[in-house]
Amino acid sequence: MHIVAVIPARMGSGRLPGKVLSLILGKPLLGHLLDRICLCPSIDDIVVATSDKSENDVIEKYCEVRGISTFRGSEDDVLSRLDGAIQWSRADKGVLLFGDGPLVDPQIIEELVNFSAANEEYDFVGNDLRTTWPPGMEVEVFNASAIKDANAHCTDFAVREHGTLHIRTHPERYKLHNIDASLEYRRPDLSFEVDEEVDFYVVEKILAHFEPRKEFSLREIIEFMDKNPHLGEMTAKVERRWTQYRER
Questions:
Q1: Domains and CATH numbers, the chain
Q2: 119 vs 112, 114, 138, 157, 229, CA distance in Å?
Q3: Cα separation of 58 and 41, whole Å?
Q4: Nearest CA among 245, 248, 94, 72 for reference residue 158
Q5: What would the pLDDT profile of 199-215 be if each residue is shown by its tens digit?
């Protein structure tokens, strides 16, 4: 079974343009995420799925330096870009990770990939059908056949912009499973994704605290945040656009 991590990333972010290559401790945000994914033994390959607009040439060049593959597709049709990346990489399963979530815990990735591999009846295994984990820890594992089917059948462009949303909202067609956070990780009040400048600041503080380690866990991040409650308060009021598509 060929398992490929796919990271949709582009320079044209609405709120923080160019954030994926913005530097934290001398390394792009995307680079910190790649460091975390590279700690996962279950991942056979990584593909950064960026857009074919010329402004994203810098993403491809950075990935070349890192030895990471890139796939280029539609700027706004994320579903087609994901499907294209999965088919191009000949993956059996895709592991969707988000370019604005550089702190995702490798242990969570491993848990979801291993569950999906052991439960082949599920087309989609994620931890974001409901919000129980801290935002920024989202992982989605899906069969290549499911993303191909979604790309072929989804006709709503507003849904296609959100990648796997067609799969996640059609349980009558795809077999879905959500992995909820255990009590110690059930902290949706914290957020580790980067949408605005204040998020960037908080992520920088976390990375600086653990520098030069790359393998620090979500448990350690939560402990750090609880010792520095002002950081959590800073991000609590940031509007997250995914909230309309997810159970609380």
A1: 3-245 (3.90.550.10)
A2: 10, 9, 19, 31, 39
A3: 28
A4: 245
A5: 999 999 999 999 999 99
